[in-house]
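Example 3.2
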Amino acid sequence: MTTTFSPLHHDLARAARQLWLAEGTPPGSPVVEAVLAGRLAVSRTPVRAALRLLEAAGITQRRGRLMVLADPSRDLPPVEARDPVDALVGAIARAREERRLADIVREADLMREFGQPRGLVSRALMKLSALGVVARNPAQGWHFAATLAGEEERMQAMRFRLVVEPAALRQPGYALDPNFARTMREAHQAVLARPWRDVEAVRLFEMNAAFHLGLAQGSGNRFFADAVEAQNRLRALVNADWRFGDKRAHDSCREHLAVLDALEAGDNGRAATLLEDHLRCAGP
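Structure, written as tokens:
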């Protein structure tokens, strides 16, 4: 059976290798799945796949039922190239922000503008549609949805979010979905485990939007969730072309994790305050 390794598996494998190198762990040391999962702050399932990747690279090896460290100095295989759909999504978002694309576009227009085949353009438009950036016209072509026009509207949106999102965490009976929390924690730790690359902007925004929506859904009040979902659509265009730099990307992840920590500790008031601080910062 062939294993398909995801970017998360690659990230965890590299984080484990760096951990062993930094601590000078000698070859032959046992590698315990549960212990490594705890060190990397993720569940055991993605660690299991990461260990298979490490074993395939010769960094770990099995001795009977025991896995041991073999040679942490060996390199892992390169991470898969960036998804070309995400690359085109970012390019379209940038072009729209720079007013190089009209309100209504056809696939042929985008093929010509970006020199890409129809299939790739079609998949990029479907992803932009899922993000709420574009919608298909009844006749032909696509139109760009409303977005945050200018700095003043962005500030107004931030002030609105400061009122709504922390209030959702303070609702009586607030209940954080543990599966959502675990998935978000793993995804954020994966971003922190690797050097930031601006080419990952689309995935970062998708994770970010899911995080804020999931927090609002914990309120059990659909009006909070609807408001956050609407804001996610409005800010998708700007954030699909991340320009805030690697420090802000990683700081944003750490701030999200701090909110999760507080919620899981039952301190919703502190979680709401941390979320307010997060929203006041630049970026998502």
